[in-house]
Each structure stands twice: as structure tokens, then as C-alpha cells.
Amino acid sequence: MGPLETILLQPYTDSLFINTQGTNGFEYFSISRLEEFLIELDSLKLDPNFSFVDFFTSLQDWYSVYRFTEPVNDEYTIISVDTTIITYELRFQYEARRLQDETIQTVLGSFDCKKFLLQWRVLYFLLPPPFPPIELITTNDSIWIAPDNWIVKDVIPANNIDLSFLGFPPFTIPGLRTELTDEITKVENDHLVPSSIYLSQNYPNPFNPITSFEFRIAESGFVSLKVYDVLGREAATLINEDKSAGAYKVEFNASGLTSGIYFYRVTAGKLIETKKMILLK
Questions:
Q1: Cis peptide leading into 209, omega within 30 of 0?
Q2: Handedness of CA 229, 51, 48, 176 (dihedral sign)
Q3: pLDDT tens track for 5-21
Q4: Considering the domain 197-279, what is its CATH architecture?
């Protein structure tokens, strides 16, 4: 991910987990796309006894998301969970609908696609059932799947949310557009020498207590890799020695640390790269 002007020069990571069985496509739900947004929600401290990060992390699992023989426009529920935030009875619901097949044009040509609409909904029960709930939030994710290529286009519009009538400040759920931008090329040599410095996002994230991440450096020299807490205090030193140019993978065990947000930083000469991670125990 990054600016379109430089996207082809940036590192590529793939953390999408897909499994197909019969006529269904199973996807592993992860909070990776929602993480920053969920952290922002938790920072509002709407309810000291409720964590959006913890709640959605508990839902991480395999789900039958893409049902290719489902009748067109028939809606089906993937996840439906009720919870209470402050005194509000809410339902978080993940639904899908198979839309009419569609042909789309890409830089690699024309694709005949299966099209799906995925929706996260937040419903508020002002009155108990059988009274219908009030729909507070709906996100729309349109996905085009081409045979032998999987997802070739994915569009999530930005969503401005106004819950002022409940006493909450307005906020925005960022949009995301994923599509093919250039022909896929083959890498002949697994040994890559980076042009500068690169530090990957740790995985899993949030984690408990072990996670891992990779970094790459362009030139040999002294390298340090350290972990800091939110106050900038050093929590761990993972590397503090000379390293040759190349790629490295590091595993971090945080069993001695408390839950919270931490930062890990790699320094190579004058180059510094920092990422954020979440420890949940």
C-alpha cells in the first residue's frame, strides 16, 4: 500500500488467507485492515470496560464469505454478535450478497468476474425484540473475483459516521481501493538487496506473547533493533551488532511485558524505520 505514483517501488506483503471447499470460498477474518480505526475508537474511551480491539480480535476465524452458488441478490449472514457498550445494546453483523456477474477491464485485460457485496453493520436496539433495531453504521465492500486469479478488484468507499444523537463525536472510516496496476512479474532470485531500509509490520498483530517481523538493509554496517513503550522507554534490545546487507526475520517474545502499545525501531547508519504493535494479554 502507498501513493499510486510510487506503489510499484514499494515492498509488497500478502496476508490474505483463503481456502476453497466445494462451491464456497472461506476467508480468515483478521483485524489488520481495521486495526488503526479500532485503536482510534478505543482512544475515545467510550466505555472503560469495553475494548473494540479485544472484541474484534475475538472474532478472528475462518468464515464462509464467498458462496458462489448463492442466488443473486440473496443476503446471507456471516457473523452476528450482540454486545453492550455503556448501556447501549448493539449487534455487530457481517453480511454478504452475491451480485450479478460482471465483466471488468484491467491493465491485464478483461475478466469475467463473480461479484460480491460485503457489509459490516452496527445495529442499536432502542427497544427489545420484536421491535426492529436502528442501523447506526454500514460499510460497503464490493469485490470482483476472477477464475484462476481470485480478487482482481476491491472497493470500499470512505464512510462518514455521525452518532451525535447518541452523544458520540463524528468520525470517518477510511476507504480503500485495491486493483491491478501493472503486469505481474516473476522474481528469479530469492536473494534481494534492498535500495534503502525496510521494516515490515509485525505478524500477528495484536499478539500474545510472540510475534515476528522482517527488515531489510541495503548496506553492511552496525544495526540496532529495539522495542520501546509508549513513553519512549526501551523495553527490549533484539539486535545490536554489525550485519551484512540483506533481509532478516526476527521473532520477539513479550512474555515479560504488560499489555499495551509498543514501538519497534530498526536503525542502520543514518536510516531509521519505526512501526507500532499491540500486545494483548
A1: yes
A2: positive
A3: 565 555 555 556 788 88
A4: Sandwich (2.60)
